[in-house]
Amino acid sequence: MAKEKVTSAEVAALAGVSQSAVSRVFTPGASASAKTVEKVRKAAEQLGYRPNVLARAMVSGRSRIIGLVVAYLENQFYPVALEMLSNALQKRGYHILIFTAPNSTDGVDGLLEELMDYQVDGIIAASVSMSSDLAARAQRAGIPVVLFNRGQDGPGLSHVTSANVEGGRKVAEFLIAGGHERIAHIAGWQGSSTGRDRQAGFLAAMRAAGKRPFATVDGMYSREVAAACARQLLQGGTRPDAIFVGNDHMAFAVMDVIRDQGLVPGQDISVVGYDDVPLASWGAYRLTTLRQPVNRMVEAAVDLVLRQIEERDAAQDHIEIEGELILRSSARIPEGWTK
Amino acid sequence: MAKEKVTSAEVAALAGVSQSAVSRVFTPGASASAKTVEKVRKAAEQLGYRPNVLARAMVSGRSRIIGLVVAYLENQFYPVALEMLSNALQKRGYHILIFTAPNSTDGVDGLLEELMDYQVDGIIAASVSMSSDLAARAQRAGIPVVLFNRGQDGPGLSHVTSANVEGGRKVAEFLIAGGHERIAHIAGWQGSSTGRDRQAGFLAAMRAAGKRPFATVDGMYSREVAAACARQLLQGGTRPDAIFVGNDHMAFAVMDVIRDQGLVPGQDISVVGYDDVPLASWGAYRLTTLRQPVNRMVEAAVDLVLRQIEERDAAQDHIEIEGELILRSSARIPEGWTK
DNA sequence: CTGAAAGCGCTTACAG
DNA sequence: CTGAAAGCGCTTACAG
């Protein structure tokens, strides 16, 4: 039976080698003779020895911990991403230390201190913006930061997003092709790059087609705000015949409001979301939406941080992944387009 | 400008005190004169010093890290719990190291090793079972384990759940009071205590009322399985007039199937879930469900681990929190009951 | 209250 | 390949 805590020294004693030898056997790439390896492995097994990650971290300067700043978990996009991120990182020998953040910018500032206290090797920040001051501090500390699903103004940070401007454009073009005349936009939070980019793409495509949006309002990425916006839009004499909503999470609220008014999404009013979270495909919503390829975004983010950690040279990078419009029944499908 | 890494020795030098003094100033409860505190604080501020948590962990034996084993994040119950857990722990100076687990028992076994490598102070395992062998190992290592939303056969682990047997009973009584004649149960995974307990309570209440369930099947906590079960139940000549589903996540799938068949939940067939995740109150579902009070479950779990960590004596405990039936429109409401 | 010193469990030059 | 030794950044008795 293994005892509470076994150290490399105890293994060394049992194996009849030096403590350094034990360490080498457990350090990938270090040299040890086959005989030593065998003796050590046997002793370690017998004692139930496993290297103490924290001690290793102290001397090597690598904790194998990635700080993940996350918020807004009500939006199904993030739990899904979180799970994938954790799996991908686990597979490469890292683990995630979670920091739940307030959704505002200033909330993150205090977190960085704590993050650094734990000597994390890198930081992935999902769904939060970061001041460039913060970026600078992390950089000075030599900790790579990757923004996930959020861009950044100014230099300093890597980030991975989907092609949001283009996504917004695609949605507008789809809606225009569908013959909609009064297209409204309940935008993603205009304090975030994703919200702004999607809106910019949407407006650009409208302009290019010589159309003006029926209305453009900020849904703040909030169910409540989006629902209020939708109610507002529906109450006038003429109402929109299509609404592009800045993300799926808000789009569900909008659909709920539409139905509350006795209208049918996809017939009376087309609704298009952004993300393609699992719920979007469920029977109750069947939401047409611009899919953000989470798996590829996750892969990119993981590659980015780990590359910056493991090969110090690796420069920052901005990765943009293209999304695809997923056609379902919440929006009228233009003739000739196939589901 | 702070430099990359500042140590207590550097602060000591600048402040003109010993390194031990610096350490004391940053150790709550350690004694230092007002003058020393001031000199040290000033120097620390100037240099941008913060204690290295890992170094502190090494010597003190406390990492202030809680390992969280989690899976099944598609079920909105868990992201919600995760966020609350993280917030509660953060507030008390701990952080969560995430381990995503396969939903099976054996998957967790390997994780425990990794968990212990990081010298976590405690473990919270959500939505996973644990072999008693595993429990024993953690115990031997002196690491308290708390099962969240899962019970355990045999001794060794603390756990917090809602009152599942009673919850199942309440649902049955509600359905019986509603005058339903053919009540089916798509149960939670029978490999889990929650699934078994809810079913047991349900069956007991049925028996007590002299009723036999229309059918009882295992939904495995899976959308797909639950949907298949629902289709099965609906296709015969006589179909159930009520279905108690083992959790909300499956209940949504069941409602989707019911509507696909042109039936209306709450009119043609009553559906009752378990959990009361946020989605249950959204317009598209309005699911009647037995609420698990996540906030109280989280508080209890956090208290339990921290107590076991901070006062070594604290014994294991099994905490059961009562839930409440939330009446919405997915199920017929018995006369006299109020929403 | 305060400093010198030992030690937490490792990794990593440094000699051999 | 291998061992002795230094050192990672702290906390904590131990004297004073």
TrEMBL record, chains A, B:
A Pfam family the protein falls into: Peripla_BP_3
The keyword Membrane appears for this protein: no
Coiled coil feature spans: none
GO molecular function: DNA-binding transcription factor activity; transcription cis-regulatory region binding
Stored PROSITE patterns: HTH_LACI_2
Gene3D superfamilies: 3.40.50.2300, lambda repressor-like DNA-binding domains (1.10.260.40)
Keyword DNA repair attributed: no
InterPro entries named in the record: HTH_LacI, LacI/GalR-like_sensor, Lambda_DNA-bd_dom_sf, Peripla_BP_I
Domain of life: Bacteria
Keywords associated with the record: DNA-binding, Repressor, Transcription, Transcription regulation
Domain (HTH lacI-type): residue spans on this chain: 6-60
Stated name of the protein: Ribose operon repressor
Lineage of producing organism: Bacteria, Pseudomonadati, Pseudomonadota, Alphaproteobacteria, Rhodobacterales
Gene that this sequence comes from: rbsR
